[in-house]
Amino acid sequence: MAQSPPDVHSAPRENISASESVTVYQRAHLSIQTVIKQVETFPVLLQTELHNQLGILSSLSLKLNQGIFQIATFGFVSRGKSAVLNALFAEPIFPVGPLNGETQWPRSVRWSPEIAKGLSDLQIELIDTPGLDEIEGQGRAQMAQEIAQAADLILFIIAGPPTALELEALQALRQSGRPLLIVVNKADLYPDLDAARVYERLAVPLQQVLTPQDILLTSAAPAPVEIRVEWPDGRTTNDWETPPANIEPLRSALLQLIQREGRTLLVLNTLLQIQSVERDIAEHVQTYEAQSGKACIGQYARLKAALIAVCPLSFLDVTIGLLADLLLIGTLVKLYRLPTHRHQVNKLWGQILLSLASLVVVEMSTPTLSNWVSHVSLGFLPWVGTGLLQAGVSLYGAQRVGKQTQAYLVNGYTWSPLGASTLIQDILKQLQPQMVLYRLRQELSAQLE
Predict the structure, then answer these.
(1) Poorest-confidence range of 187-191, 202-206, 231-235?
(2) Do 136 and 165 form a contact (C-beta atoms < 8 A)?
């Protein structure tokens, strides 16, 4: 029998204001379009190599446009994943049966708009997955990782107290950085079990990102119970009756969570996936331009070293060194076609200043070196020796500036004004303590480093 949805209008409003959420939402769209336009400036061969990455960006753009909020279920066989989803739908959408492993591959279905009525303009998509203990080895880990990273919310289904293997699987899913709810199905078989006892069994890292309120007890398909039937003629017989599903705690928790921070979850998860694509693109650019970048650094380093070696004036040496380093940086920026940004720019300037400081130290030591060598009457040897020393220091300094520039462009690609890391950081700054995402802020911040 279908159950009416809870009154979500009384749920707390999303802590990030509507205007702020819309702004971040729009910036996420612009972030995707900016990356696509940047890739269009790359050489044709490199664009071909990035075909898959562009496809992922297009899919993410479509997901944002349609407001698709994805909830993925995980668990071992016979825990009732499909039964839980069917209870949420109040109809048999997903196959269930007496045999283990009815679900052989991931399957997604949109939740009824009537159920989500009054929540937001989000479309809720429920994803059923095969049992984690049915898929062998690396294939299981890869499937779980891909689905978990694409989902905006994860439901981990257990049946009774969690086993050691289930706790291990929970730890692995936690690494995805996505919000997680634990659903204890078949709770009718464990009358003494409650959320607090399940929470106590969790490892400390899991307790840090979960609360007892994130553990929900349900009975999606309760076991039949024996009842006594009294007939009008005085006879009594025993019969079996199946109680109705107890899914309301989970339904209410999901709808309230989506009402409170669903759009923020959607945008943040999309940005995390954009961030992964951006990093992949930057690595492809680095590999593609590896030879050209190495040649560019070598040419500028040798030119800088030669000019400083023959220049007789100390102040001109420093000027030449600074100009050469800046020209090298500008050339690498044009070569890589990646945006410049403020993120960790101090490291680049630090390398430039270190290069100049090394040159200044050599310049200051030149008189002492020249005076010492002049005592042995070696003619031009003082000038030649000092020039070679200055050239060596300049050559090494230019090479270090070039490598730091490459790292600055590649590692900082996601930190452009519309880069995913920049937008993720903006969202994390706005999180409030009562939000599910707030407990994940440290892990999410670590992904920005």
Answers:
(1) 231-235
(2) no
Can you spell out the DSSP letters for 224-291? PEEEEEE-TTS-EEEEEEPPPPB-HHHHHHHHHHHHHHHHHHHHHHHHHHHHHHHHHHHHHHHHHTHH
- Measured CA to CA, the distance from residue 338 to residue 41 in angstroms comes to 10
Pick from 155, 159, 97: nearest CA to 127? 155
Q: What is the pLDDT of residues 111-138, one digit of tens each?
A: 764 555 555 578 899 988 887 766 555 5
Q: Rank 43-57, 165-179, 212-226, 357-371 by mean pLDDT and report only the highest.
A: 43-57
**Cα–Cα distance for residue pair 160/194, rounded to 1 Å:** 10
Q: Roughly what angle, to the nearest 10 degrees, separates helices 381-411 and 345-374? A: 170
Judged against a pLDDT cut of 80, whether residue 290 lies above it is answered with: yes
pLDDT digits (tens, 9 = 90+) for 359-376: 788 767 655 444 444 444
Q: What is the C-alpha separation between 63 and 151, in angstroms, rounded?
A: 11
Share of the chain above pLDDT 70, in %: 82
Per the structure block, which two tokens stand in for 337?
A: 């076609």
| Inter-CA distances, 262 with 106, 259, 305, Å | 23, 6, 58
CB-based contacts of 415, cutoff 8 Å, min separation 6 = 341, 342, 343, 344, 421, 422
Q: Count CB atoms within 10 A of the CB of residue 397.
A: 25
Residues forming beta bridges with residue 128, ordered by sequence position: 107
Ranges of H-type helices in 289-313: 290-310
Q: Between residues 235 and 31, which one has the greater pLDDT? A: 31
Complete DSSP assignment for 388-406: HHHHHHHHHHHHHHHHHHH
Backbone angles phi, psi at 81, to 5 degrees: -60, -50
Q: How far apart are CA 203 and CA 200, in angstroms?
A: 8
| Higher pLDDT, residue 245 or 370 | 245
Structure tokens at 65: 């446009």
DSSP single-letter state for residue 163: P
